[in-house]
Amino acid sequence: MAGNTAANADLPLSPPANPANRLRALLNLALILLDVALLSLAFVLGYAARASLPLFAVPDKLPPLLQYAPTLALHVGVCVVMFYLSRLYHLPRVVSRIDQARKILGIVTIGSLIASGMQELVFKTTIFEVDYPRGMFFYVWIFSALLVIGGREIYQIARNWLRRRGLDRDNLLIVGMGKVARDIARRIKDNPSLGYNIVGVVVNGKTKTRGSLMGIPIIGTYQDLPRLIDSQRVEQVIIALPDAQRAEIVELVTLCQRGRVDIKIYPDLFAYMAGDLNVDDLGGTPLLTVRDIALRGWRLSLKRGLDIFGAFFGMVFLSPFMLLTAIAIRLESPGPVFYTQERMGLDGRPFQMIKFRTMREDAEAQGPGWTVENDPRVTRLGRILRKTNWDEIPQLINVLVGEMSLVGPRPERPVYVLQFREHIPRYMERHREKAGMTGWAQVNGLRGDTSIAERTAYDLWYVENWSLWLDLKIIIRTIWQTITRRDKNAY
Known about the structure:
The structure is a single chain. The chain has three domains: 19-164, no CATH class; 169-266, NAD(P)-binding Rossmann-like Domain (Rossmann fold); 298-484, no CATH class. Helices cover 49% and strands 13% of the residues. It contains 16 helices and twelve strands. It has helices spanning 2-7, 19-52, 69-85, 97-122, 134-164, 179-190, 225-231, 246-256, 269-274, 298-332, 380-387, 395-400, 414-423, 440-443, 452-464, 468-484, and strands at 170-175, 196-203, 212-213, 216-221, 236-239, 262-265, 278-282, 285-289, 338-344, 350-356, 404-407, 435-438. The longest helix has 35 residues, at 298-332. The relative contact order is 0.08.
């Protein structure tokens, strides 16, 4: 391939302009203008709230709104600059609503404080001298955060609408033909809101050069990459070759370096399973950290405190509904209200996990079996409980007594653990933490009859990247997915 690289050196370095880039520039400008409009509206609403709402002492006389024009301009300008510096105008393909809302709240808070401080330092000594009451500052801050968060949600909905109709998409080229390439192609085709248009697949010249991958045509070999990137106006290249040698990857990256093309490489299995890689220092010697357990020391106490607080108040608040569920179960079919099943928890120790009974009492008369879709053993009420995840609510008892956590790897039955540990690398490491009522794998759509290897990778990532915010995010996403009945989305 090296000789071919040299042969292609005479090709133009920049592909023809893609019309989608112009639309993308307009959308970015629209987002900035939307923020300016919403921040201005928030200031006006804050002024009106200060003059009428009794949360603070209503002033006898508030200066006219026009007199606050310099303060308004300062507030809007500082916040927009803070948004830009915090890369809120450089959004990734999939934006987590929860993370974005948290980031906006933090930036609006800092921006509002900076604007207030600058107003005191600058306008107090000029002809624009005007008092900026604390009550008005509070209202402007609240309205700014709420309106910008709501505006970003509306903007994202509009952008997804355009992408589903073929607009605002990047032309994408996939390099590879194996399972990883198929998974990437399927995910992109199933999620048009990601904003990708797959123009084709490129394969090694030693393999077949005709046919298709998930309905996507094979349009060339590795040596054709420079020509294809230019002719197809490719803006994104994904190298889906997890088993490729280093020299091959370097050569492919060299072939793809054409103009403003983004290159992404799917990591090998080791890097994927290891999670985030960090470089530590040992007396000047760099060390690559591939495993750094986050849940240790005071963090364990913090997580336990969240579990006790959440489980206690959850049981108090939900107890009337749990009582009604128990009555309904007894009325529909004979047998106990609760169903206990042995699961494997922390350090591989078994415990009895509690659930509302959703199957007939004799469901496992022939031995344990994996639940399948439309399982005839499930009762009519049980189908509703499973669909809404309400059957899991009694596990709050397991959380309260310390056998489980609100968030963590979902526990499996010992009979299945013995099977999985033989085939899934690092599977038993997920048992170094307490099992959870919900987990990172579950909120990413990995429930029921899904890949155990993929679930394990998500569980290990959670263990090695734990934070209190991550737990809160998973809990919020679980509640939202239950309400909207969505298995997977960007929250």
